[in-house]
Task: structure prediction
Amino acid sequence: MKSSQIRESFISFFESKSHSRVQSAPVLPIGDKSLLFTNAGMNQFKAIFLNSEKPKNLRVVNSQKCIRVSGKHNDLEEVGRDGFHHTFFEMLGNWSFGDYYKKEAIKWSWELFTEVWNLDKSRLWVTVFEEDDEAFDLWKNQTDIDPNRIIRSGAKDNFWEMAETGPCGPCSEIHYYVGDTPEDQKSEMVNNSSEYWELWNLVFIQFNRLKDGTMEDLPKKTCRYWCRT
Result:
């Protein structure tokens, strides 16, 4: 499939789940001095996450053009070391602003990957934040993934934050083994080998981190889920 076909398939899938399609924001952020470039699909929704702006729709889907050459999310140093890091890319995202949460996000991501795009389940792995029992149980009970392929991981890999302050929360990633010997797959190699590619990150935004490091609960649970093209 061409990237344009993947993009349209992703957006159409979530439109079928009552999401409204929105346009990509400019790569030069408007009204946000904390960023040099737009580096994530959630940038244009930051005010909604912080409850300072009301969303026009509770479910949206988009394809955001991103540049990652500075700040916390700097992929420039990784280019050339593997086959999937790059500085400019499109981030496919589905978003819930206080509507659905972990259950639907997990079920739909698995449905798209395994029933629509027909990815090989025997090559898929899932990581969850080590303290997120809810996400672990949902993967185990709401999908048919082999429970041995659900891995608990620490904050380094499975706690999402855009910057030192602001919206943040635990996340769950879906990885795909691209190697030539699927019989040799090992859980400990996920996030530690270039043969395991992160395809999707399901982020459960629950907190707002303040300058002093305090984590305050956000008034509404919001979600962002994305994969790269």
About this structure: The chain has a mean pLDDT of 88.
